[in-house]
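BUG: 3D viewer hangs when loading the predicted structure for this chain

Environment: internal workstation, default settings.
Expected: structure renders.
Actual: progress bar stalls at 90%.

Input used:
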Amino acid sequence: MRTAGTGNACRVTTMLQAFRRRRRNREIVARLYDGVVDHARQPRFFVEGGLPDTVMGRFDALAIGVFLFLHRCRADPQLAALSQDLVDRFMTDMDHTMREMGIGYMAVPKRMRKLAGLFYQRVNAFRGPLEGDDAAALRSAVRDQKLGGEAPLDDAAIAFWSTYMLDEAKLNATLDTETILAGHWHSGRTG
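Structure tokens produced before the viewer hung:
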């Protein structure tokens, strides 16, 4: 026979387990996001990739990194929730960054809508060509997206981004699900 105290203890144990699981998930998402951010800071994205070293240039380097993470996760239903958590972390980071830059409290939501719109616009533009392994269509999409928000990228930079995304997607496809679920992304990779 179960007593009232035993039922309460089970509920408390269940709540503590759920809390630990959520904390562990946050830690995994933080490690994955840190890996995406570290990878997006490579000088080659600004040198060969032609992105300006500005807020928008850095946003685009990071947005492409997040997009490539999402692209890898799309192939595996086990990663769906994790990929959404990473996008949420990305958007939270963008919000905090704008506030740190001194953008007024009332202007942040408007700017966040703009950045989110740019991010999803790029996701939609790059997804089809990347899934079709179509370098010419990806070059066209990169050209149309006007990465960096300033002067258009030259042909060499457009080719760099097309080649980079195709190569990176293939490399990311080799990462096993368990590695990603453990919070490892770009561990030890420099390319």
